[in-house]
Amino acid sequence: MNSAAFDVVGIGNAIVDVIAHADERFLVDEGFASGAMTLIDAERAEALYRKMGPAIESSGGSAGNTMAGIASLGGAGGYIGKVRDDLLGEVFRHDITAIGVRFDTPAATAGPGTARCLVMVTQDGQRTMATYLGACVDLGPEDIDADLIGAAQITYLEGYLFDPPRAQAAFRAAAAIAHRAGRQVALSLSDPFCVGRHRAAFRELVAGDIDILFANEAEICSLYETEDFAAAAAAVRGQVAVAALTRSAVGSVILAGAESHVVAAAPVARIVDTTGAGDLYAAGFLYGLTRGLALPTCGAVGSLCAAEIISHVGARPEVALAGLVKAACVL
Amino acid sequence: MNSAAFDVVGIGNAIVDVIAHADERFLVDEGFASGAMTLIDAERAEALYRKMGPAIESSGGSAGNTMAGIASLGGAGGYIGKVRDDLLGEVFRHDITAIGVRFDTPAATAGPGTARCLVMVTQDGQRTMATYLGACVDLGPEDIDADLIGAAQITYLEGYLFDPPRAQAAFRAAAAIAHRAGRQVALSLSDPFCVGRHRAAFRELVAGDIDILFANEAEICSLYETEDFAAAAAAVRGQVAVAALTRSAVGSVILAGAESHVVAAAPVARIVDTTGAGDLYAAGFLYGLTRGLALPTCGAVGSLCAAEIISHVGARPEVALAGLVKAACVL
Question: Which of B310, B282, B311, B313 is nearest to B73 (CA)?
Answer without folding.
Answer: B282
